[in-house]
Amino acid sequence: ACSVEACTNPQLWEGEKKMADKNTSLVAAAKNTSTGVVRIAPMGTALQTEAKKPLDAEIAKTGYIGEEGVENAPERENSEQKAFGGDTVMILNTGYKETFKWKFLPSLDVDVLKAVYGTENVTEKSGVITILHNGKDLPRAVFVLEIALSGGKIKRLVIPEGQITELSAVSYKDGEVTGYEVTMTTYPDAAGNNVYEYISAAT
User: Fold this and answer.
1) Is the Cβ–Cβ distance between 162 and 43 less than 8 Å?
2) pLDDT of the chain, 203 residues: tens digit per residue
3) How many CB atoms lie within 10 A of CB 58?
4) How many Cα neighbours within 13 Å face the side chain of 115?
5) Neighbouring-strand partners of residue 146
6) What is the pTM of this model?
7) Could you tell me which of 86, 202, 102 has the C-alpha nearest to residue 154?
8) How far apart are CA 191 and CA 178, in angstroms?
9) DSSP secondary structure of 99-140
10) Which string of b and e fits 120-151 if b means at least 16 CB within 10 Å?
């Protein structure tokens, strides 16, 4: 594998191939960004096609997430095809889905509450927030996840169509921050892609 710079520079790539086995510059750890990780916008919002260009103001920030960070789970559904006699001769891909899981910490943020309970179920008036709990389907939305990487890199995951499909039990107790742990399911766009991932230098 090549670094972001080397993938576009053949000479640099040749040099990296010679040292790729022990090239620590290709190892990265994830960190929170200064503006938060998860952003949400209505369906139809223009999508970014790079990692570092500033996002439009209409893409809502949702602040801190839990220390576990984000769990991304791609899942392929396969069908094992066997020949007469029992030998496996082919594995057919019969489906694909991808989910993301994280815990929202700003439990008093209206944008977070709308994401968790649905836009139509959350209102704010004169400083009073009203939340309706019901079984209505949550709306689909555009999600953008921004993750800082060590080595001065940034990763941006753009989900053209996602939906929060699971809310874990919410705990209210002494000594623990109240938060909302959610699972977001992605859906394929017109091109058949669930997620677009971009990595580049942060500046």
Assistant:
1) no
2) 566 566 666 666 666 655 567 888 888 888 888 778 999 999 999 998 998 888 888 889 999 999 999 999 999 998 999 999 999 999 998 889 999 999 999 999 999 999 999 999 999 999 999 999 999 999 999 999 999 999 899 999 999 999 999 999 999 999 999 999 999 999 999 999 999 999 999 88
3) 11
4) 33
5) 156
6) 0.82
7) 202
8) 39
9) EEEEEE--TT-HHHHHHHH-GGGEEEETTEEEE----PPPPP
10) ebbeeeeeeeeeeeeeeebebbbbbbbbbbee
Which amino acid appears at position 98 of this protein?
Answer: E
47: its two tokens: 């999508």
Residue written as tokens 């669930």?
A: 194
Cα(117)–Cα(189) distance, integer angstroms: 24
Question: How many other CB atoms are there within 10 angstroms of residue 19's CB atom?
Answer: 11
* Cα distance between residue 135 and residue 72, in whole Å: 26
Q: How far is CA 30 from CA 53, 147, 161, in A?
A: 19, 6, 24
The pair of three-digit structure tokens given for residue 85, joined into one six-digit string: 């006699």
Contact 117, 110 (CB under 8 A): no
Q: What are phi and psi of 47, to 5 degrees?
A: -95, 140
Q: Are 153 and 202 in contact (CB under 8 A)?
A: yes
